[in-house]
Amino acid sequence: MRRVLIANRGEIALRIVRACKELGLETVAVYSDADSESRHVQLCDMSLRLGPPAAKHSYLDKTLVIQAAKATGADAIHPGYGFLSEDADFAERCAAEGLVFVGPAPDAIRQMGDKIAAKKLAESIGVPLVPGGNIEPGADLDKLARTLPYPVLLKAAAGGGGRGMRVVEQAADFAASLMQASNEAQEAFGDGTVYWETYIGNARHIEVQVLSDAHGNHVHLGERDCSLQRRHQKLLEESPSPMLTSDLRNDLCGAAVRIVRTLDYRGAGTIEFLYDADRRSFHFIEMNTRIQVEHPVTEAVHGIDLVREQLRIAMGLPIDERVRHAKTAGWSIECRINAEDPDHGFMPSPGRITRLVLPGGPGVRVDTHCEAGSLVSPYYDSMIAKLIVWDVDREHARRRMLRALEEFVIEGLTTTIPFHIRLLRSDAFAKSAYNTRWIEKAAQQELAA
Description:
single chain; Dna Ligase, domain 1; D-amino Acid Aminotransferase, Chain A, domain 1; 8-stranded antiparallel beta sheet; globular
């Protein structure tokens, strides 16, 4: 591997550029018209325009991306997260064109991308599941609705990110909710298949970072707690989780490693679980076959570079020995700084950044592609930056994050910084007394401006 095309944009594209340069790899940027002046485009060795701002005409056009790789002499493509990162057909096309796809094999993407198939695999090796079932085409929906253990959660089989998901409280709402979830899943993922799960009310969202190579090494790098969400979109993540005992942590991480070993997986991935805080039990929900937005908290508590390991694995190298034996040290928290208005339903707030002052000091990291003058486009996600802190324990990390948030200055548009300050100051966060629905329900008064 000599030259890597980065099939993404924003902060993750810049993150990949830096990892490639540290490995001595040449880099190629592709960009839409909205990103022509982006930081990663400036730093790459080569760059090529894909097309207009709409993602379907640029970053999601598989043919254009592969043509760009061939035209620039790239021999590998790193998809980052989102866009084409979990597209098995794209990974197959890369292989057919002689290009290395920096990620797992297409079969692994396809199997774990189908949540029903992923749950069957987990069940076959004894990993606990959330009780649930499939909804067969042509099923008697009235009969099924009368038998379900409400509340239940409807979920799209082919995707995530909150799309194609509905909580159903009673039988009378089942058919309409199913139609809404199925239509949304069809539009988002091209597959309207939906299944149901028992809804766990007091749930924490806990995920395990895994790495696997072609030399038989399958390792975990601890867990992340991603329970602070709004409409299934994560707002803040931390590592380790304050909820787990040592025994539960060992069981959870061991289950994640069994899954990737059974798959004979290659690359970075995340095994996601729901933790039932009332019953103190965990349940597998899905796997993401890519790098996650929140990977920096794992890097911070282990002192490693996950993107560099992705690239090394794609080059056929074994996982670095220091990574295989890395131990968790201290505590890390990440806040997603978005161009959104939390006081008006987190409405997107695109626009131009007129002033930007980044926080600093010990244990503070900012992953951003933005600078003063940067335009936050309405065509893509609203993330401006990820603010990550590390300290010796959770309380010190909480205080450090508050200090860093108060230093962070972004002018020209509305951001989530004030919301995060209120969140970090809340008693619920300090005591870790919340679940995945807390922000949407119980926190409305406590986090009000």
